[in-house]
C-alpha cells in the first residue's frame, strides 16, 4: 500500500469541513478534480469508504469520521512542526501576539512589556485587550502566543505562571442604594437596581456570566475602567478589582456592599500559553521575564 500524503489528508478534512468537493477545492485553492482524486486515492489505500455521497452535502461514514478526527490531530502536529522549523530558521520571531485580560493590572504589565520589547526591536508586539472568555478563545484558537488572565487550570492544553490574586469587590456610590448598607443585602433587593457588567469579547464561545443577579437591569461596558466610571457616577453597581479602587474605598467615593449574599470573589491571575505549540526564542525569554517578575506583581496586587 502506498503511503498517504499530507495533501490528501488536507483534501479529506476540507471536504468534510466544507460539505463538498467544490467548496473544499475553493478553500484549498485546488481544482475540483484534484480534490476528488485525492479522496479516491485515500479510499483505495485504506480499502474503506470514507464519504457518504448520497445526500446534498457530502458526509463522512462512521469510519471516515474516525479517520477525520485522527487526520485533524496529525495535520495540527504537522503545522506545529513546520512553525517550529520556521522559528528556528529565522531566529527571533517577527511578532508576538499577547492578550491582556480584563483582570490585568494594565500599567504594571504594560511597563514590563515595554521594557522587554525594547530589547527586541526586530520582534513586533501585537497587543490585544479581551474580556471575560475572550482571552481563552484567542489562545485556544491559536490567535495568541500568551495571555494574561484567569484560566481553567484543569485544561491540559495550557501551562501557566501564577501572577497573583485579584479580589473583586461589589461596590456602589454613596446614595445609590435606597436602603442601608448591611452584610445581609439580598439579590432580591439588588434586582431592582441597574447592574454594570463587562461585555464578553469572545466571538464563538458560549457567553458566561460572572457575579450577575438574574433578572436585574444591566448596562454592559467594554472594560473595568468604564465600569468604574459608571459606578462612581451613581449609574449602576457592580464588582470591581480591588487594586483599581483602593483610593476610592478609603476616601468614601465608593462603598463596599460585600456581605453574606455578595461575598465578592478572588480570581487567580496567570500568564498562560499553549503546551502543544512551539515557542520561539523571544517568546521563551518573555516567559522567563514574567516568571522573574511574578513575585513583584503578586506583592503589589496583595497590597
From TrEMBL:
Pfam families membership: HTH_1 (PF00126), LysR_substrate (PF03466)
SUPFAM superfamilies: Periplasmic binding protein-like II (SSF53850), Winged helix' DNA-binding domain (SSF46785)
UniProt keyword DNA-binding present: yes
InterPro entries for the chain: LysR_HTH_N (IPR000847), LysR_subst-bd (IPR005119), WH-like_DNA-bd_sf (IPR036388), WH_DNA-bd_sf (IPR036390)
Assigned keywords, A-Z: DNA-binding, Transcription, Transcription regulation
Domain HTH lysR-type: start-end pairs: 4-61
Gene3D superfamilies cross-referenced by the UniProt entry: 3.40.190.290, Winged helix-like DNA-binding domain superfamily/Winged helix DNA-binding domain
The family this protein is said to belong to: Belongs to the LysR transcriptional regulatory family.
Name the UniProt record assigns to this protein: LysR family transcriptional regulator
Amino acid at each position: 500500500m502506498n503511503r498517504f500524503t499530507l495533501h490528501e489528508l488536507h483534501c479529506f478534512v476540507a471536504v468534510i469541513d466544507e460539505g463538498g468537493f467544490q467548496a473544499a477545492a475553493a478553500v484549498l485553492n485546488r481544482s475540483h478534480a484534484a480534490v476528488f482524486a485525492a479522496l479516491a486515492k485515500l479510499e483505495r489505500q485504506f480499502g474503506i469508504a470514507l464519504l457518504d455521497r448520497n445526500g446534498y452535502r457530502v458526509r463522512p461514514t462512521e469510519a471516515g469520521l474516525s479517520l477525520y478526527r485522527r487526520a485533524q490531530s496529525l495535520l495540527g502536529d504537522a503545522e506545529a512542526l513546520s512553525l517550529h522549523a520556521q522559528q528556528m530558521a529565522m531566529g527571533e520571531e517577527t511578532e508576538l501576539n499577547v492578550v491582556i485580560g480584563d483582570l490585568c493590572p494594565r500599567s504594571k504589565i504594560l511597563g514590563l512589556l515595554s521594557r522587554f520589547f525594547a530589547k527586541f526591536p526586530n520582534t513586533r508586539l501585537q497587543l490585544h485587550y479581551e474580556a471575560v472568555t475572550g482571552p481563552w478563545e484567542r489562545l485556544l484558537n491559536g490567535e495568541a502566543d500568551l495571555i494574561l488572565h484567569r484560566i481553567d487550570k484543569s485544561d491540559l492544553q495550557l501551562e501557566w505562571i501564577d501572577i497573583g490574586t485579584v479580589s473583586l469587590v461589589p461596590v456602589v456610590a454613596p446614595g445609590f442604594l435606597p436602603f442601608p448598607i448591611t452584610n445581609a443585602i439580598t439579590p432580591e433587593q439588588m434586582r431592582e437596581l441597574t447592574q454594570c457588567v463587562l461585555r464578553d469579547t469572545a466571538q464563538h464561545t458560549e457567553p458566561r456570566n460572572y457575579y450577575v443577579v438574574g433578572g436585574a437591569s444591566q448596562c454592559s461596558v467594554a472594560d473595568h475602567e468604564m465600569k468604574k466610571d459608571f459606578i462612581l457616577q451613581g449609574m449602576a453597581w457592580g464588582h470591581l478589582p480591588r487594586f483599581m479602587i483602593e483610593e476610592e474605598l478609603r476616601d468614601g467615593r465608593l462603598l463596599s456592599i460585600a456581605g453574606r449574599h455578595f461575598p465578592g470573589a478572588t480570581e487567580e491571575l496567570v500568564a498562560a500559553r499553549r503546551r502543544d505549540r512551539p515557542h520561539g526564542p523571544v517568546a521563551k525569554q518573555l516567559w522567563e521575564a514574567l516568571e522573574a517578575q511574578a513575585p513583584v506583581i503578586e506583592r503589589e496586587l496583595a497590597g
